[in-house]
Amino acid sequence: MAVHELLSVPYHQQDTDVYCGAACAQMVLGSIGAGIQAQDGIYTDERNHTSELASWYNPPDGLQWVLNDRRPAGFGGWFALYSLASEDAISRKLCWTIHHYGVAAVAMVYKGDHWLVVRGYEASAAPA
Hints:
Layout: E1 3-6, H1 20-31, H2 39-48, H3 60-70, H4 87-101, E2 105-109, E3 114-118, E4 120-123
Antiparallel strand pairs: 1-4, 2-3
Helix pairs in contact: 1-2, 1-3, 2-3
């Protein structure tokens, strides 16, 4: 039985060429009730809360920190980083996150050059 899930996530384009992670955080935070937050502040916080500043415009640990720090009090979950060995493994994790937690995920694409929001999937069966 085919399964299709699509979450409602407000779209916001990135405000500068390097704010893809900040735009993703803005969209995910907006979708969980945190309101619309400025990308400038998100970007600054990402870069102020990382151990790898020299390697990234939007560092993964900084993006995780922002999502956790700015999530609304009523949101019962927390955001985690995953680095998996294959596209299949990360695709399954993205589907599981959407299905199990009901929240969009942020994923890195283009060999680490860009962040995007994954808000849905279509699969042959529900994630297990």
